[in-house]
Amino acid sequence: MKITDVETLYLRQPQVKEQCDSGQDALIVKVTTDAGITGLGEVDSSPLAVKGAIEGPFSHTVTSGLREIIRGEDPFETEYLWHKMYRANIYAGRRGIGIHAMSGIDMALWDIKGKALGLPVWKLLGGGFHKKLRCYASSLFGSTPQATHDLARRFRDRGFSAVKFGWAPMGRDAKTDVDLVRQGRRGLGDDADLLIDAGLVWDAKTALQRARAFEEFNIFWLEEPLSPDDYEGYRKLSEATSIRIAAGEEESNRFSFLELMDKGKIDVVQIDLTRCGGFTEAMKIASLAQDRGLVVANHGFTTYINVTAALHFLNSIPNALIVEFVAEEETTLREKITQQRLRAEDGYLRIPDAPGLGIDLDEEGVRRFRVA
């Protein structure tokens, strides 16, 4: 079997709000083979920059469009192809966009392998730790503390035992920050887990003040309170609070994750398969976390392709903690572009068992949202 082509599909809602919601557009990667098997991947990044990184031409030996690097290769050779892509784009792609682009391709290659062998990806990865995984309803904060309370109540009533709120208006001022968490806890009740995503809004001193203020609300973790490069700030914060500190969604391969783990001393390693280098790199990152006694959660605020991939990944590692799951079903793009639509049952997601990723595009939805 040989790879014949790599294609990117840029999908976008007609209206995109100015808010931290990466589910309003999507970049899907399709890898086709001469055996008639097509693999799917996704990249959560700057869509057109990734499109260029994949579909661009050869420039020179350490800067090339990734399609040119893997066309004609055997899709089963995922480790070799990962390193071939990395080496052939090392000038421009050691971090960020280049690794993001590799992520979507790597995901699609594992999808091809699973389809060819008739096995789910988690089985190819050697997994089998779970039949289902606990998930948390992931949401932006309401526009006010009261609106956050109402959202929390709604998610609790839908059966979720864990709910996360994040980003604006967190960071406006101390009173608003505390009120948002207080009302989230009131709406959720005392018998469920409340997760808080600060959205990169504070310096280390402020983050420590907030962490201490949030302790009375018994939050499950405090996510991304600092700039991702502030490793010293993360260390000070992690060592000074009993609250779990979570981070990692901004990172793009195991070297930057090592900085967060070893210098930043974070507690929860958040891995996004569409950014970190796909399954091939994510498994290495999870092993490094396991060696350090750290737990792993996914990051995924985009489509069901990302969430499905995360379920395969988390089922393949011993240190999986919980699954991020965007529970707002009215999001137009997410609900329209895949044939499968994931639903939580009593706060859990079932592990896929179909060959490959086990998720397929809805071609009508793709045509509707594709940007020419």
Structure description:
The chain is α/β, with parallel strands linked by helices. The protein has two domains: 3-118, Enolase-like, domain 1, CATH 3.30.390.10; 124-362, Enolase-like C-terminal domain (TIM Barrel, Alpha-Beta Barrel). It contains 15 helices and 14 strands. The strands form three sheets. An eight-stranded parallel barrel has the order 6-7-8-9-10-11-12-13, surrounded by six helices. It has a three-stranded antiparallel β-sheet with strand order 1-2-3. Helix 11 links the parallel strand 10 and strand 11. It starts with a strand and ends with a helix. The model has no long low-confidence stretch (mean pLDDT 96).
Q: Residue share in helices?
A: 40-55%
Strand count, sense and barrel status of the largest sheet are: 8 strands, parallel, barrel
Based on helices, strands and strand pairing, what is the structural class? alpha/beta
DSSP helical segment count? 15
Radius of gyration: 20 Å
Stretches with pLDDT under 50, minimum 5 residues? none
What is the CATH first-level class name of the largest domain? Answer: Alpha Beta
State the CATH superfamily name of the largest domain: Enolase-like C-terminal domain
**Could you tell me how far the N terminus lies from the C terminus, measured between alpha carbons in angstroms?**
30 Å
> What percentage of the residues does DSSP assign to strands (E)?
15-25%
